[in-house]
Design goal:
Blueprint (H helix, E strand, L loop, with lengths): L1 H16 L4 E8 L5 E7 L2 E7 L3 E8 L3 E6 L5 E5 L3 E6 L4 E7 L4 E4 L6 E2 L8 E4 L2 E7 L13 E4 L2 E9 L2 E6 L6 E9 L2 E6 L3
Parallel strand pairs: 1-7, 8-17
Antiparallel strand pairs: 1-4, 2-3, 2-5, 6-7, 8-12, 9-11, 10-12, 13-14, 14-15, 15-16, 16-17
């Protein structure tokens, strides 16, 4: 009798060990952007598109991962529990004071999803007027993120960027007397300083 109970107990124990965890996770898009994500679970994955203010329930077994494909994760934030994943607009933007001592410049995003309008929407470019201005970005900047338009105007002269070396931008005059302007960019805390190092 004792052997029979022991065998039954061991059998129940082995059956319980093979139980797989599974469930349903709700994925909700509360952002302003259509999103495309990869839902991976149990050695399979699928791409799912989700419009703003929509949600979808996804069944999973053993584990799951939810990986954003579009748009950039810079403009989104994710809140996640085991039962629910919510995508929201990134409202934790960085603010910078730009001190531009050169000329009006156009800073390009170049598909980095970094630059933001004052309304916290992504933008392809921001005009940096000569003097002081303020800009917002979706994450902190480094000098490598700074990209200027290739053509600039200083006074009445037109210049074309022909080289970049780290935080130095080299521009040559496109007509008249040959001259080169080198623009240097420094980022210190929440300040971006732009100045010429030659004339």
């Amino acid at each position: 009798m004792k052997k029979l109970v022991l065998i039954a107990l061991i059998a129940v124990l082995f059956v319980g060990c093979g139980k797989k965890e599974k469930g349903i996770v709700t994925i909700e898009n509360k952002s302003s952007y259509p999103i495309e994500f990869e839902f991976a679970q149990n050695y399979e994955s699928k791409i799912i598109a989700l419009q703003p203010n929509n949600s979808i329930d996804c069944a999973w077994e053993c584990y799951f991962h939810c990986i954003i494909k579009k748009p950039s994760t810079n403009i989104l934030k994710k809140q996640e529990t085991k039962e629910k994943i919510v995508f929201l607009n990134n409202d934790n933007l960085c603010s910078y004071t730009v001190k531009n001592g050169v000329c009006d410049l156009t800073m390009l995003d170049n598909s980095q999803s970094l630059l933001a309008l004052p309304t916290n929407s992504p933008t392809d470019s921001i005009t940096l007027n000569k003097g002081q201005s303020n800009i917002k970005t979706f994450r902190s900047l480094s000098v490598q993120n700074v990209i200027f338009n290739k053509n600039i105007t200083i006074g009445t002269d037109q210049y074309l960027q022909f080289k970049r070396d780290g935080n130095l931008f080299y521009y040559e005059k496109t007509s008249g007397d040959y001259s080169i302007v080198i623009i240097k960019v420094e980022i210190s805390g929440n300040n971006i300083i732009i100045f010429k190092i030659n004339s």
